[in-house]
Amino acid sequence: MAHGDEGATPRRRGWFGSIHAWAATAAAVVALAISLYNLAELQQEPTIEVKLPHLMRIGPAGKGTLIYFQPTVSTRHKSQEVEVIGDVRLRLKPTGSISSSQSPKFYWQSNGVSTFDFETDEIRIEWSGDPAPFLVSQDKPQQPMFQFQDDSWVLQPGRYEGFIQLSRSGNRKPLTEDFCLIMSKRATAEMRGGGERGIYFFRNDLPKFTSSSKYSNCYVRETD
After folding, report:
1. Is CATH 2.60.40 the right assignment for the domain spanning 48-221?
2. Closest among 163, 156, 129 to 144, alpha carbons compared
3. pLDDT tens, 68-110?
4. pLDDT at 143 over 80
5. pTM for this one?
6. Cα–Cα distance measured from residue 187 to residue 166, given in angstroms and rounded to the nearest whole number
7. Could you give the 3-state DSSP secondary structure of residue 208?
8. Residue 120 phi/psi, 5° resolution?
9. What are the domain boundaries of the chain?
10. Residue 153: which residues within 8 A CB-CB, separation 6 or more?
11. Cβ proximity of 181 and 52 under 8 Å
């Protein structure tokens, strides 16, 4: 009886040893697979997204027009690569009853930052940087406030179809997001009657407008 028990012990040890070796091998294989997957993910090109803001700021600039636009540029995936945004463009095209009107030629004039003036109880936008390429990575999303300007064009009442386009490094396809802008007669008169430094807010999320397909994805003056 004792002899039989003594013989079983080495067999049990051998069985447990085999299980241990198999588990260690399986764990190593899983760890290697995870490492390879992470490496492949890191080596992929970053997937860049552009989200439009709910607010567009528009104002006069001498005899022309300026627009402040602050989209969010980000990537959701880990990557060793970083995306370089080299240029940003904004376009507006008159449509409908004003389709024969001249389209503005906006250029990226600078970047701005909004500050609150407690003395005047107003929000002011100050210069924060020149138009220049910027980097985007997962741990460094960007939300620059672009200032676009046309020195000799003014808005008139009507509907405008527009887009913002971000040029990427290399031969990658530019990022483009469409939107529309509706200028009412009231908003146009308000802007023309205001001071040269006046900034007027247009939104695309006002409940009184979002329920209508006419205003879908459109920026509309807050006071309309």
Report:
1. yes
2. 129
3. 999 999 887 666 677 889 999 999 999 999 999 999 999 999 9
4. yes
5. 0.75
6. 29
7. helix
8. -100, -5
9. 1-43, 48-221
10. 64, 65, 102, 104, 105
11. no
